[in-house]
Design brief:
8-stranded parallel barrel, 7-stranded mixed sheet, globular
Length: 764
């Protein structure tokens, strides 16, 4: 429902802005709050009334919060007069609620149990965070401030996708995640249950799916992209799965918290776990051992369900029968993403199916495959969801598309055909990406998706056709878990960014306020702390940028996405404190210096200390001739970290010329490079250094060459490539790098292009 309609139906003045007083800390921010002067206090004699027995579970969940932390449990009973009165008002929109808190009574109104639940979540956030404690808090006064709230969400679909295939999250931790979601008024949990890396749901007709498919070999000591495939007979000991009894418990737990769990059974690709269990459903041209993949999988990831084998469809229908019977959700997600057709092109069964069905090619065969399975799901009374690759061929009838690639715009191809869609763009809403300055973050890959970046995301983009917005169901954050080895890893990456997703799902377009949100967020994370939930404080860390200026110096800029902290720094190697110089403008650096800097609120340090050791050489801050974009990091005096996406590494043009601005004696020329084996980042095949006095006539000063064995070493490490120069003098120094060949056949990324990343040119 668009914001204007919500505001009018709630009795607000047209499309007015969110009217939240800044000292009321709730996330997502309510549409309207009018704060009073007193407060309501919960105690042992507090009575909560509900209109019918149907609302008792909602009220009971709220009352149970007090049992351990406060040492009492408010009484819940059917009635109309109590200390906390829940009431039904059918005139309110779905998911909307109104709440009045006075010193003597609290009244919460909604059209159904969902709205009542959301109102009670606000009360939960208004209570002291100690309400989440598992032990008695004898000194806490359980009060909430007087106020009147009118509220409703922007989108009906407010989702979170959790991948439990790549890392199996135990049931107890999943329940904890659901409770943290519920506090944010999110209402859809999209569970990615199957992938190459594990099958996580018991299917009684096919027990090997969990006996075999739920377990992978132990490669946990290596980053996900570096993990090699299993060998036949190698013990598979890492994994787990949910029994159907487990899943019924999880579904019920989520339903009590107004969350609908949407199961995803990924087809036809991401299916190695299933095919390790039942290899007969792979294409018959596949002769290699199929195992559950512990990492990227290389060529094995190209092994997908056979699209020409009739028994494949029967198998998947049997699986879906049990999934449909188990999950009450109206939706079944069928994946449909990243299906490489290598084996389909060679498979006689697939080629025969293409001919029989008069299909254009293998892409059209996927359209047939997904259409057929979608028809089966719809015949069972369910609706089908899928990733945006489904737009590459004929879309299944009425399928709901999840826009994920880039900024999710492929979903608009579905909208153009009248299909509903959900936005979960990888460039913004994929929580696997780094959430802050990478120097402080645990290893993952790709770039940054910060809290502020997600908060600023507006799903309805300029230039959309009006009908697209009507088909947009909502937004979703997606958490892929390939870099997670324990529950804390998952929670760290999810929180607090999931709160930003909740905010954009709830607040009307263009009405978000970063400062208001942060106050609510700090309150929410205080509740997480009481629940012993690990969350990231990356928003308090400092991002830096050092670039040469036009005067032969370096300009250092520092920034933090929190506007309510101060940045303090030192230049003498000492630790920064709240009394150290406060950063107010860019710093000019002209010599070797170690900058140490951190954020502070008052006297308390908030983020981690950023240490920037800037070391000068003859290339530092010198101009680069006809420099490509981003090359300035090659002469900024700062070395990169072991994360090649930390903004201190350059990849691109393979030749660069340094203008020393006057002739200089040169003894050696060095280039720093990084190897990240799993990401196919390797040193160059060769490095050549040439010298010139006029930038026209160059003479070779030295060359390094490397064999494939030297180039394609495993691991993640930094190397300095150095050419010693004998008694040379020049103004211009040209570095030329020859790209290595494609990754060899025994690489974890066989046949893929390798890339070169450089962090610093050093001339001495």
């Amino acid at each position: 429902m668009i914001a204007c309609v919500v505001s009018l139906m709630l009795g607000l003045s047209g499309c007015s802005s969110v009217k939240t007083q800044r000292d009321v800390a709730i996330v997502p921010t309510p549409l309207s709050i009018e704060k009073g002067t007193g407060s309501f206090t919960f105690g042992p004699n507090t009575v909560i009334t509900v209109p019918t027995e149907e609302q008792k579970p909602v009220a009971g969940l709220f009352a149970s919060l007090f049992t351990r932390s406060a040492g009492f449990t408010p009484k819940v009973q059917v009635g109309t007069e109590g200390d906390v009165c829940l009431e039904l008002d059918k005139n309110l929109p779905e998911d909307a609620y109104e709440m009045q808190v006075s010193s003597g009574q609290i009244r919460v109104k909604a059209s159904d149990s969902k709205g009542l639940f959301y109102g009670l979540q606000n009360l939960r956030l208004l209570l002291p965070p100690a309400i989440e404690s598992s032990t008695a808090q004898d000194t806490v006064e359980w009060t909430v401030p007087e106020m009147t709230v009118k509220d409703a969400p922007r989108f009906g679909y407010r989702g979170f996708m959790l991948d439990v295939s790549r890392y199996f999250l135990p049931k107890e931790e999943l329940l904890r995640m659901i409770d943290c979601m519920a506090l944010l008024k999110l209402n859809r949990l999209h569970l990615h249950l199957t992938d190459d890396n594990g099958w996580r749901l018991e299917i009684k007709k096919y027990p090997k799916l969990t006996e075999v498919g739920a377990w992978k070999v132990d490669r946990q000591h290596l980053p996900f992209p570096e993990r090699r495939n299993p060998k036949r007979g190698e013990p598979a000991t890492v994994g787990g799965y949910y029994t159907q009894a487990d899943m019924k418990e999880i579904i019920a737990y989520a339903a009590d918290r107004q969350i609908e769990i949407i199961p995803e059974i990924d087809i036809p690709a991401h299916s190695n776990a299933a095919l390790a269990s039942y290899p007969e459903y792979a294409c018959p041209v596949v002769k290699d051992f199929i195992g559950v993949i512990p990492g990227l999988g290389g060529k094995n990831a190209e092994i997908i369900f056979c699209g020409g084998n009739e028994k494949t469809y029967e198998f998947l229908q049997d699986v879906l029968d049990e999934v449909i019977a188990l999950f009450p959700s109206r939706y079944i997600h069928l994946g449909g993403d990243e299906a490489t057709k290598t084996n389909w092109k060679k498979c006689p069964l697939c080629q025969a199916r293409i001919r029989e069905e008069h299909l254009a090619d293998e892409e059209a065969l996927q359209g047939y495959f997904m259409g057929r399975m979608s028809d089966y799901v719809r015949s069972k009374g369910k609706e089908v969801m899928g990733w945006d690759e489904l737009t590459n061929s004929k879309l299944p009838e009425d399928a709901i598309i999840f826009g994920w690639q880039g900024f999710g715009n492929a979903a608009l191809k579905a909208a153009e055909q009248g299909h509903r869609f959900v936005m979960t763009p990888a460039r913004v809403a994929y929580l696997i990406r780094y959430q802050g300055p990478q120097w402080f973050e645990p290893l993952t890959y790709f770039g940054n998706n910060t809290l502020k970046g997600l908060f600023d995301y507006e799903p309805v983009q300029e230039g959309w056709k009006p009908e697209y917005e009507k088909l947009l169901m909502g937004v979703q954050a997606s958490m892929w878990t390939e870099f997670c080895n324990k529950p804390e890893d998952v929670f760290y990456l999810v929180f607090p960014r999931l709160a930003a997703l909740a905010e954009i799902a709830w607040i009307p377009k263009n009405q978000k306020d970063w400062n208001v949100f942060l106050k609510g967020l700090d309150n929410y994370t205080a509740h997480l702390e009481q629940k012993d939930v690990v969350y990231a404080r990356s928003m308090f860390n400092i991002q830096h940028r050092i670039i040469p200026d036009d005067n032969g110096a370096l300009t250092l800029t520092l920034e933090c996405e929190r506007p309510d902290v101060d940045i303090h720094y030192t230049l003498d190697g000492t630790e920064p404190t709240a009394t150290s110089p406060r950063y107010t403008q860019a710093l000019t650096l002209k010599e070797n210096v170690t900058v140490k800097t951190a954020t502070f609120a008052g006297n308390e340090q908030q983020g981690k200390t950023l240490i920037l050791p800037v070391e000068w050489n003859k290339a530092t801050a010198k101009p680069l001739v006809n420099a490509a974009s981003g090359m300035e990091v090659l002469v900024n005096g700062l070395r990169g970290s072991l994360k090649q996406t930390d903004f201190e590494w350059y990849t691109g043009a393979m030749s660069v010329t340094v203008d020393l601005q006057q002739p200089e004696d040169i003894r050696s020329c060095t280039a720093g490079c990084i190897t990240n084996y799993g990401m196919a980042v390797h040193k160059p095949k060769s490095m050549t250094v040439e010298l010139s006095d006029d930038n026209l006539h160059f003479k070779e000063a030295g060359k390094l060459t490397f064999t494939d064995d030297e180039i394609f070493r495993e691991g993640n490490f930094i190397e300095d490539l150095t050419i010693d120069v004998d008694h040379a003098r020049a103004r211009y120094v040209r570095f030329t790098f020859e790209a290595p060949s494609n990754c060899p056949a025994d690489h974890v990324r066989p046949g893929q292009p390798s890339r070169v990343y450089l962090d610093e040119l050093i001339i001495r």
